[in-house]
Amino acid sequence: MWEPIRFLLFSTMESFAAFSLMLSIFRLKATDYAWQAIVVMLIMSAQSYVLREELALAVVVPIISILLYIFLITTVVKVPILWSSIITITGFSIYGVIQSLILKGIFHDVPTIQFQGSAQGALLQAITSATVLLLSWVLYKFGIGFMADFEKLRFKWEHFIVSGLIVFSLIAVTIMLYYNDVWLNIVFFALASGMFLYYAFKKEEEI
User: Fold this and answer.
1) For 170, how many CA atoms within 13 A lie in the half-sphere containing its CB?
2) CB-based burial label for 175 (10 Å; 0-12, 13-18, 19+)
3) Which residue ranges make up each domain of the chain?
4) Fewer CB within 10 Å: C terminus or N terminus of the chain?
5) How much is the mean pLDDT over the chain?
């Protein structure tokens, strides 16, 4: 009973920490988009749990997570999709390096396979999240990071392109999950896609 709750809690914490790092590296303030990000992180964590525990499809979780981060940064933070991809992959990679260093430094005697769904895994997530959140605060506080002219890489009618990609991704994921007969996960992706589309269209006039 408590395992799904623990998974959601620590996975959401980890996802938000990674999101904060992504934005801080490029001198963007993550707390300005906190509630939208947390909603997406909860959905992301829920679908991750189903994919890992119910479908044994852990291999696709990072790919789907990267797509969700890109859509979040594009539609909510209003960064062009090419820059959103760069920001996501950069932050995702650095987060992975930090977690790997913590894993080797603190949990070097524990086999990696034992971390999935374990107390050690939750502790690793908590330590990594706290470290990354502190690093993100330092980066933003002292203006350390990259400055970029995001608008130079913005396509004309980009919000329509982004919306098309969101719909395409939703359809592709839905087909995959339909054949695995997991309707709950389809609902998760539909909710996330709905939120992204809302920001892509309704908030476009705020740019």
Assistant:
1) 19
2) exposed
3) 2-206
4) N
5) 76
